[in-house]
Amino acid sequence: MKIKETTNLKALCQMILDQRSDIEQFFLESLEQVKEEKRRKLETQKQEQIQQEQKNYSMGMAQADSISQLASQKVTVELQDLDWEDRERILRLLFSKMNTGQSATDWREKPGSSAREEGSSHMATGVN
Question: What's the CA gap between 23 and 27, in Å, rounded?
Fold first, then answer.
């Protein structure tokens, strides 16, 4: 009897550890996704700033070294660089991944495509 209980307890503990690992992985994926989106946004802003500096340089209002300095800077995003909206997005992605067990982009695509398929089949059969 005790061996059965011990085996059952070990299986439950392993299941909890596996679920925890999944949640940790979902969190890390969500964090990386939001950080990458933020990095792309900052990279775009940097490119716009470089273009503005180039315009100013051509008009004699900027120095060439400021343009090269901007171009050489690498854009990195750390956790402290994320504002509250970004952090909220991380949590939303985390919960959507936890609820569906798959990435948020897949989660958003599947209901839309299945709803269209169901809608077309309902229209074809005349059932609402």
Answer: 6
